[in-house]
Specification:
By secondary structure, the protein is mainly beta. It has three helices and 26 strands.
Length: about 450
């Protein structure tokens, strides 16, 4: 701060102090000037002092030391997700009201630049702030977090700026504040993989195994997933598979299980969904991931037919009653089972059945007139289709004995003429088969 000296010949006018030799030379010069010129010079100096506006007179308030204009920027959440909304608030202030007194600020303007680099002017209730004054503006601008605005380190950054005229000298200076704030962007992630192994038979279980992974990265707000569930959508419904209390970032959990397809004839697809919540963030978000697995049953249809002759042979013309069976030797249900015989005529119907489960056996009896033979050989043929439309066939034959009654008659005929003793007696003999067998 400039000091001042007074000199008797200056009639009490205060002058800035400077070099002492220069001051004495000046005073000596003043002493040598005529009194009239001295008065005129003093009057001119007085007017110059009055209208040249020294710095101290331009300060508001007069004891201020400089600029205190500033701005603070606030967010309504310390962490967010993509798609969340951040609302920003600001405080425009001029000094703290404590310690040194700052100069008044006028013509104040302020704006916020959101992470998408869009500038948003703030409508201020006061554009003139004295020492210690401040105004708080709530939610002056809101912004929806976009993936394209996420910075390395997984944050989005906003800035706030205010400027104004600082009334601290003859020509007001420009002052103001700048404030930036970073908000962590949490990127929770869950992944799932699954594979299956087909079952055997129409009721065979398809087995599956899989993994659930917390795939959030450590540099992107890695967070623990809580209450992780795995469900299986198959056969038209949802079925729980696993519940995992929590999975930390990068951790892998396994699961397994099985299902039996409602339709064994077609490949069966199951859709597995993993779901978890980043519970430890400010605004928890649920994340999901799905994977599917398709497997088929191994189906082998089969049929077997047997035939047994009667325990006692029957004579020709009598009913020859035989027994038989048809069985499902495969691992899939058979439908439309038909058994035919080639006796007494080709494709003679013997037995029918609508369906036959794997491993099941059905028995039957049938008869036909015994032929006039010593035995008879016939063949049974069974035909069917699996429930998936695959045709199967099998045959069996057996030779059955016929009860035979052989007969023979012999007839001797004497000669028609008498024969004298010692003469030749000629007679005839007839052998005849009176039965029905040769």
């Amino acid at each position: 701060m400039n000091t001042s000296i007074q000199h008797p010949e200056l009639n009490g006018i205060v002058q800035p102090s400077g070099d002492s030799c220069q001051s004495e030379a000046t005073l000596s010069a003043w002493r040598k000037l005529p009194r009239r010129f001295t008065f005129a010079a003093l009057l001119a100096g007085l007017l110059l002092l009055l209208f040249s506006a020294p710095a101290a007179r331009a300060q508001v308030p007069t004891n201020c030391v400089g600029s205190g204009l500033g701005i603070q920027l606030y967010t309504d959440s310390p962490d967010v997700h993509i798609g969340d909304t951040i609302c920003y608030s600001v405080m425009v202030f001029n000094g703290t009201g404590f310690g040194q007194v700052v100069c008044d600020a006028s013509n104040i303007t302020a704006f916020v630049v959101t992470p998408d680099l869009v500038s948003h002017p703030i409508t201020l209730v006061r554009t003139y702030l004295s020492n210690g004054q401040w105004d708080y503006y709530t939610n002056v601008v809101c912004y929806v977090v976009q993936a394209t605005n996420v910075l390395p380190g997984c944050t989005v950054r906003a800035t706030a700026t205010d400027t104004g005229a600082i009334l601290q000298n003859d020509v007001p200076s420009v002052g103001g504040g700048f404030q930036g704030v970073n908000t962590v962007v949490s990127l929770p992630c869950i992944g799932i993989t699954v594979q299956c192994v087909g079952g055997v038979g129409q009721n065979g279980a398809i087995n599956f195994t899989g993994t659930v992974t917390n795939c959030s990265t450590t540099n992107c707000g890695a967070t623990t997933l809580v209450g992780v569930t795995v469900t299986n959508f198959v056969n038209g419904g949802y079925f729980p598979v696993a519940f995992i209390t929590n999975i930390t970032s990068g951790q892998i959990a396994t699961f397994s299980g099985s299902w039996v397809p409602l339709n064994p004839c077609s490949p069966s697809t199951a859709i597995f969904t993993a779901q978890g919540v980043d519970q430890y963030t400010t605004h928890p978000r649920t994340v999901t991931s799905s994977a599917s697995a398709t497997c088929s049953e191994t189906l082998t249809p089969g049929i077997l037919v047997t035939k047994s002759c009667p325990l006692q042979p029957v004579p020709p013309g009598q009913p020859l009653t035989f027994s038989g069976s048809v069985s499902n030797t495969g691992n899939v249900t058979l439908t439309n089972i038909v058994v035919v015989n080639n006796q007494p005529a080709t494709n003679t119907l013997v037995f029918t059945l609508s369906s036959l489960a794997p491993g099941a056996v059905a028995t039957f009896n049938a008869s036909y007139p015994a032929p006039t033979n010593c035995s008879v050989t016939d063949m049974l043929t069974a035909r069917a289709s699996s429930v998936c439309g695959v045709a199967v066939t099998n045959s069996a034959s057996a030779t059955c004995t016929i009860l035979t009654t052989p007969q023979i008659t012999v007839t001797a005929n004497c000669p028609t003429n008498l024969v004298v003793p010692g003469g030749t007696l000629t007679y005839s003999v007839m052998v005849q088969n009176p039965g029905i067998f040769t």
